[in-house]
Amino acid sequence: MSKFLNLDRESKAQRQLQKRSVFLFLLVSLLGIVTLFQIVKLTILDSILYTTLSDENRIISVPIYPSRGLIKLSNDEIVVENIVSQALTMVPAKTLDIEKTLRELRVDLVIDEEQLLAFEERIINKPSRYERVVIVENLSPEQIARFSVEKDKWPGLSIEARLMRFNLLGHLFSHVLGYVGQINPEEIEDSEDFSYPLSFLIGKTGVEKTYEEDMRGGVGYKTIEVDVNGKEIRELDRVVPNKGSDVYLSLDKELQKLARKELAGRKGAVVALNPNTGFIKALVSSPDFNPNILNKTESGDIETIFNDLDSPLFNRAISGNYPPASTIKPFIGLLGLKEGEIDWNTTIEDEGFFQLNEDGRKYRGWKEDGHGKVNLSKSIIVSSDVFFYQLAAQLTVDRIAAFLKQFGFGLKTGVDLYAEVEGILPDRKWKLGAIGESWFVGDTLNIGIGQGYISCTPLQLAVAISSIATRGKIYKPKVVAKIGEEHIEKELIFEISSINQTDWSKLENSMVSVISDWRGTAYNLAEIAENKIAGKTGTAQIKSLTDEELTVREEYEDVRQEESNRDHALFVGYGPIPEPELTVVVIVENGESGSAVAAPIAQKLIDNYLRRKKLNVR
Amino acid sequence: MSGKAPLDYQLNTSFGSKRDTLSKVLIDPILVFSLLSVLVFGLFVLFSANGQLTSMVFRQSIYIVIGLLLMFFISRLDQSVYKSFLMHLFWIGLILLIWVLLFPAEGYKTDRWVDLGFISFQPSEVLRLLLPLAAASYLTRSQRRPSVKDWCIVLSAILVSSFLIYLQPDLGTSLIVLASGCIPVFLAGFSLLAIFILIALILISSPFLWANLTPYMQQRVITLFNPESDLLGAGWNISQSKTAIGSGGFMGKGYLSGTQSQLDFIPESHSDFIFSVIGEEFGFLGIILLFLVYGIILYRVFKIAFNSSTEFSRLTVSTIGFIFLIYILINVSMTVGTLPVVGLPLPLISQGGTSILIHLVAFGFVLSMKKRETW
Q1: Is B234 part of any domain?
Q2: Which of B128, B173, B265, B288 is exposed most, by the fewest CB atoms within 10 A?
Q3: Which residues of A touch B332 (CB under 8 A)?
Q4: In the predicted structure, residue B228 carries a pLDDT above the cut 70
C-alpha cells in the first residue's frame, strides 16, 4: 500500500519536473531567441556595417621609447652615443609568402644569406604575427634606394629608423662599458616595471647592463589613427617619454689609453683607482674587443669574438682569478705585528729554504742561497719567502683567513660591473668542501707567500692595497661617478682599526724601499721614477716546482719552455708618497717578472697621472 | 520501477560488442565526444585569442586533462556514494566566500580570489555550480515532498551566498548565483503562488535596490541599454565585441585572421569575450555549428535526466543541464549586447581552470547517474 503511494508520488513528481522543465526551457528560450536574432542581425543583416567599423577601427596606442642615456667622461666627452640606423622590418601577418619574400630580398637588396637565416630563426620564436620584426639592421644607402623602388612588391615590409649604440672609443673601454643586444625572453620576464618590446636593445654587460634602468628612461605613449594598412593618419594624443639619464664615468681616458698601450696586447689586466674614494681611473683587460661589432653598428664577425681562444670578452680585471703571490706579504706581515708573533726587530736566518721539522720537506724560497739575516722590513724589500713561511706557520690558517677577509679577499668588492668573482680565500672548511681533504700546514705556508689555493682578482688586490694607503679605510670601487645630475658619493665599506699608525707607516716605508733600496725587487724603477711610490712585486707560479734534485732556477728553465706555464708577473703599488692619489695593480699573464714587466707599467701610470694633474692645476 | 530494460540498453546489445564496450567505458559516448570536441575547439580559439601564445593553451590543456580524469572518476561512482555528501559541499563554498571577504588575496585588484599557494581561484565561481547541486540534493534527500522548513533553509542558503558575493562586490555573479540556486527550487516544485509573491516583492523594492548599487554597477547596467553613448568608456567592451562578431559575417575572417581579436581591440578576448573571437574568425556558420554541438550535449543531458530512476538524479541532472544552458546563453547574450556584461565565462571554452574543472565534474555526476540506468 505504502509502496504504491510512494510510486504514485514519484511519478507525480516526475511529471511535475518535466512540466516545470519545459516551462523553464520556454522562458529561457525567450532570451535565446532575442540573442539568436541579434547574432543573425550582427553577422548577416548588418555585417557590412560592422565590417566597415572594423576596418575603421584603427585608433591604437603605440609606445614611444625614449632615446637611451649617453655614456660620457667626467669632462663631458661622449664615449657612447646613439646613432640612427635604417633597419628593414617585416610584419609577418601581412607578408603572404615569407620564404619567397626573403629569396627576393637576397637578390634585389643584396642581403647576405646568413642574416636572412638568422631572421628566419628569430621569426619562428615569435608569439605574435602582428608585431614588427627586424630583418636586417644598418641598410646601406644603396639598399635603401633599391628598396624604395620596389617596395610595392612587399606590403609587409618597411624601413624603420632605429637608434643603435655606438662606442666612439671602440676597444678602449670595451670591458667597462660592455655592449647592448636584443632582449631575450628571460630578460623580458625578469623586468617587472618596464614592458620591453621584442626588438628592444638592452645592456648585456658592463656599464650598459649595470646602469640599464638609469639609461633606458621611461616609456611614453601616443594614440594614433591608422588606415587599413596600419599607416599612421594622424596623432590624437601623446604622453612624452622620460629620457634616460646620461651616465658619467670616473675613468681617465689618458690613463686607460696608456695602460692599454703598455699591456700591448699581452694577456693581463691593469686596475688604477683613487685609494681615497674608490673611484676607478683605469680598468683594462687584455685582450679586448670592439663593442661596436656586438652593438651591430660596425660590421664584423661576432662569432670570431665569441670563439677566440684568448677570450677577449672575459674581463680579467674583475673575473680573472690570480694567485696574489708575493703581493700578499705586506698583509701577512701586518697580521704578524698585530698578533704579536713578530715585531719590526724580529730577525731570522734565511738560508733559502724552510723546514717545519728537522728532516721534513724543504719549502724553498725563490733565491737559492737565501737572503741571510732578514727582518720584516727586509723580507718585504727583498721578498723573502722563508720569512713568510715561518710567520705563516706561526699564525695558522684560521687567523690568516680571518684577517685577509677584512681586506676583501674572498669577497666581491661590489664594483658596479657585472660578472665580478670573489676569488678564493681558503681555510679548513673551504678545503674540506672544495678539495675534500683536511688542511695541512704546507697549505698555510703557501698562503704565506700568496701561492697555493689562494686567488683573487686584480680589482680585489687594488682595493686591498689601497687600504694600506688609507691606513685601513676600504672604499667600494666604482666606475660611474655621476648619473644625470646626481653625483655618486664615495662609499666606505670597511675600516680596519686593529693596526696602529706606526705599523702602517713602517710597512709603507718598507714598500717604498722595494723601489728605492738597491736590494729592492723593483729597484729597476728607481731610474725611471718621477714620483715616490710604495709597491710590491709578485711572481705567480703556474706550475709548482717540487723537484728537490734541481734548484728552483734550473727547474723553472724547463717549465718555461711552454709559454702558458710561465709565471704571471704582478705589481701592486700606490703613490705619490706621502699623499697617495692613485693605486695601480698590474698583472701580466706569463709575463715572468713582476719587477721587469709589471712594475714599470704601474710607475708610468702613476707618473703620467700626476704629471697631467700638475699641468691642470697650473 | 518496471522490470523492462531501458530502450538504450536493448539497442546497444544489438550493435555488437565494440559499441557495447565503448558505452561501458564512456557511459554516453555521444555526450563525451561532444564535450571533447567543444574542449578541443576551445583550445584552438584560445590560441588565437591569446595572441598566439602556446603557454596559456598548455596550461588550459592541463586543466582539461585533470577535469576529464575527475569526470571519469566521478562517473564510476554510485549516486548513493555522494548523495548525502553533495549538500555538505555547500559549506565548503560558504567558508571560502567568507574567507575571501576576510583575507583578500594579494596581487589581484578585487578581493574575489582565494590563494591556496599552489592554486588560486574564485570561490564564487565554485559556488555557481555547487549551490544548485547542493540545493537539488538537499530537496530530494528523503522520499517525502520538501517541507516548508526545507524550502526556507534552501532559499536562505541561496540568499546568503549571493549576498556574500554581492559584498565582494560582484553584482553580476551574485545575480547568477541567485538564479542558479533558484533553478532546482523551481524544478522541485516550489509553490507557484509563492513565486509570484516573491517577484512582486522584488519589483516593488527595485527602486530601493537601485539606489543601493555602487556607481560602478549602475554604470554597467546603464551601458547595457545604450553602449554607444560612452564609446571609449564602459561601452567599449560591448561595441568592440559587436563589431568583431558583425565583421565576421557569414563565413568569418578565418582562423587567426580576426583583426579585432589579433590587434587586441577586444578586451578579455581569452576569457569572458572569447565568443567574439569565435564570431569574428568563424562567422555565423561557426556559431551555429558550436550551438549545434552544445545542443547535442544538452539533449543528452536532459535525456539522461528524464530517464533517470530516482528523484535525486532527475532533479540534479536537469539542474546541471539548465545551468549549462543558462551560462552559455548569458555569456553569448552579453557578448552580443542583449544582456549586461556580468563576467561569466563561456562554458568549456573560456580560459580559466576553475570553470573547466567545475563543469567537467558536473558532467561526471551526469554520467554516473546514467550508468545506474543501464544496469
Answers
A1: yes
A2: B288
A3: 35, 39
A4: no
